[in-house]
Design goal:
Layout lengths: L4 H10 L3 E6 L2 E5 L10 E11 L2 E5 L7 E4 L4 H22 L18 E9 H9 L11 H9 L4 H13 L4 H7 L3
Antiparallel strand pairs: 1-2, 3-4, 3-6, 4-5
Helix pairs in contact: 2-3
């Protein structure tokens, strides 16, 4: 028995498969069964250790998640802690690692010159920032074309991005990023 592509897509959808991207005639599907749902928000306790040369930041529940800040600069410490937490959790998500439940302050012992701080992070904005990171590519143009583009104040990077998206048939980078695991 032969099926049309529409019939196959309908059967996949009925079985729980979700289309995550469509580039030209290529459809990309994933099945959510067994997938861990990613949380949008997390909050972990950071330990800010004050010293003469600055503030060291660690997250006892997340080994390997560290940051630092200038001496007596609590605002910078919180900003840096939030950035470190977001990037660390993003890496754990990408690696399929289980993100632990945070301990309470009552379950922690703090050393001298240590101050706890609850650091929260909104993951959709972290994920979006990481996914839209730019990669520098060098390309060659005839000198007359480069001169004309400069004279006309053309943003060559933007023109190249738009042309490459058109050439590849990519309309929505978010859909593509999801399909390849970004």
């Amino acid at each position: 028995m032969e099926y049309s592509s529409r019939e196959i897509i309908s059967m996949l959808a009925a079985d729980g498969w979700q289309e995550v991207a469509c580039v030209g005639s290529h459809h990309h599907f994933k099945h959510p069964k067994g997938e861990k749902a990613m949380k949008n928000e997390y909050a972990f306790i950071a330990v800010l250790e004050y010293a003469d040369d600055g503030i060291s930041i660690s997250f006892p529940d997340l080994p390997g998640c560290f940051s630092c800040a200038g001496t007596n600069n609590a605002d910078e410490a919180v900003r840096n802690a939030r950035e470190a937490l977001g990037l660390h959790l993003f890496a754990m998500e990408q690696d399929g690692e289980e993100i632990p439940e945070p301990r309470t302050l009552n379950d922690m012992e703090l050393g001298k010159n240590c101050v706890p701080a609850v650091i929260d992070v909104f993951m959709p904005s972290v994920r979006a920032a990481v996914k839209t990171a730019f990669v520098k590519k060098t390309l060659s143009l005839p000198s007359w074309l480069a001169a004309l583009a400069e004279e006309k104040n053309v943003n060559c990077s933007k023109v190249f991005q738009d042309a490459l998206k058109t050439f590849l048939g990519v309309e929505d980078s978010n859909v593509y990023c999801k399909s390849v695991g970004f």
